[in-house]
Specification:
InterPro entries: LolA/LolB/LppX. Keywords: Signal. This is DUF4292 domain-containing protein. There is one protein chain. The protein is an alpha+beta fold. The protein has one domain: outer membrane lipoprotein receptor (LolB), chain A. Helix content is 15%, strand content 41%. A 14-stranded mixed β-sheet has the order 7-8-9-10-11-12-13-1-2-3-4-5-6-14. It is globular.
Length: 296
């Protein structure tokens, strides 16, 4: 009895000191990092794109910007962002079809255009992420750096997630935190659906970006887009039925620049109907047209 009391006291003290007890791994654990990454991809296999609205909050050394965001992100690297002020006025419209970047800055009365590079997309997101990686994160999936099989490792973390470490073939490293959905905890690992909680990419010792994903919830496929006048045929969803989870809160940070962008999803649907021209915009009148690249 004295031994049991001592062990109980030691455990209690450890919990009080650390704030929480270590979480045991699921009964069925992933044998390799690539097996876990394959299950992550399978979790989002039904997703072709996501559309919705969000609150954005951007912090930087230059100040703070808040507004409403209408977003559309479709595989592999097509995005559209419309940022609206709290008073309902359009502030920015960014489009990228994977090769062409365009951004209307209403306040500065300028229309930027150039290659769909990470640095150009960062003119709005403030985080230098390639288009395909941005689309992945917006739907809750971690972009995965190219690597050899021996370049990835996996270990269970007592805080309740798998820690996947990737050594890229391009002198970069990535850390991904994965956890099984609560209802899948006792399933065989090959049947588990995974949540992405954290992604950090570093190159040559410098953090390129750090993304934290939370408040996961299942959403449904968007309905067909119907012409209210009944002239045009309905536009069907851009993919099949899907009830995968989406992180309703995404925080993207660039540690060396102190840029911090938070997306709080208000409403979202999988596989939205795609209207022709959604990822390109005409040049409006009364603005200055300027070509930009990574040197600007």
């Amino acid at each position: 009895m004295r031994h049991r009391a001592t062990a109980w006291a030691a455990t209690t003290l450890a919990v009080l000191v650390t704030g929480c007890a270590a979480v045991d791994p699921p009964p069925s654990r992933f044998p390799t990092a690539d097996a876990a990454l394959d299950r992550m991809k399978a979790t989002y296999a039904c997703v072709n794109g996501v559309q919705g609205t969000a609150k954005i909050d951007h912090f930087s050394r230059h100040g703070r910007i808040r507004g409403d965001l209408y977003f559309l992100a479709v595989n592999p690297d097509r995005v559209r962002f419309d940022v609206v002020s709290p008073f309902g006025a359009t502030l920015y419209t960014l489009t990228s079809n994977g090769s062409l970047f365009q951004m209307l800055d209403v306040g500065e009365k300028q229309f930027l255009h150039g290659p769909a590079s990470a640095c150009n997309l960062a003119r709005l997101t403030q985080v230098p992420i390639p288009g395909h990686a941005l689309v992945s994160l917006l739907r809750g999936e971690a972009p995965v750096l190219a690597h050899e099989p021996q370049g990835a490792s996996i270990a269970w973390d007592g805080d309740g997630f798998y820690r996947v470490l990737i050594q890229s073939t391009r002198d970069a490293t990535e850390e991904i935190h994965l956890e099984p959905r609560p209802g899948d905890w006792n399933l065989p690992w090959s049947q588990q659906q995974l949540r992405v909680r954290d992604v950090r990419v570093t190159q040559r010792g410098v953090d390129l970006y750090h993304a934290e994903l939370s408040h996961h919830a299942a959403i449904r496929t968007a309905p067909p887009r119907v012409d209210p006048e009944g002239i045009d045929d309905p536009i069907p969803p851009s993919g099949g039925a899907c009830q995968a989870e989406i992180p309703r809160s995404i925080r993207m940070r660039v540690p060396n620049t102190e840029d911090d962008m938070i997306f709080q999803y208000k409403e979202a649907r999988w596989n939205p109907p795609l209207v022709p021209g959604a990822f390109i915009q005409p040049v409006p009148g009364g603005v200055t047209r300027r070509y930009v690249d990574c040197r600007d």
